[in-house]
Specification:
Radius of gyration: 14 Å
Helix content: under 10%
Strand content: over 45%
Structural class: mainly beta
């Protein structure tokens, strides 16, 4: 089993910044991609940013130029630096990891990000 623990959410004013962290632990043979998703009330869960094992990244159009995803492979940790936050960024942010040769999918419990106008 693999556990993902997120931290760093909170309340911030529009234009502010937050940094989310997600640490993976447990039976980890290999972490493939790690990603951040978000889900606003009444909406589906959407991809925010993904980073591959080799460091390649992709972002949702709505966050390009404002958010940066990075990972520390030695610590099995992924980060999401969020700058120039907007009220529409308000959501629960979930960490995702694709692990092992079976590409099993794991999720964190979610962390709330609230951006006030």
């Amino acid at each position: 089993q693999v556990q993902l623990v997120e931290s760093g959410g909170g309340l911030v004013q529009a234009g502010g910044s937050l940094r989310l962290s997600c640490a993976a632990s447990g039976s980890i043979s290999r972490i493939n991609a790690m990603a951040w998703y978000r889900q606003a009330p009444g909406k589906q869960r959407d991809l925010v940013a993904r980073i591959g094992n080799g460091g390649s990244t992709n972002y949702a159009d709505s966050v390009k130029g404002r958010f940066t995803i990075s990972r520390d492979n030695a610590k099995n940790t992924v980060y999401l630096q969020m700058n120039s936050l907007k009220p529409e960024d308000t959501a629960v942010y979930y960490c995702n990891a694709v692990v092992g040769w079976t590409y099993a999918d794991y999720w964190g419990q979610g962390t709330q990000v609230t951006v006030s106008s």
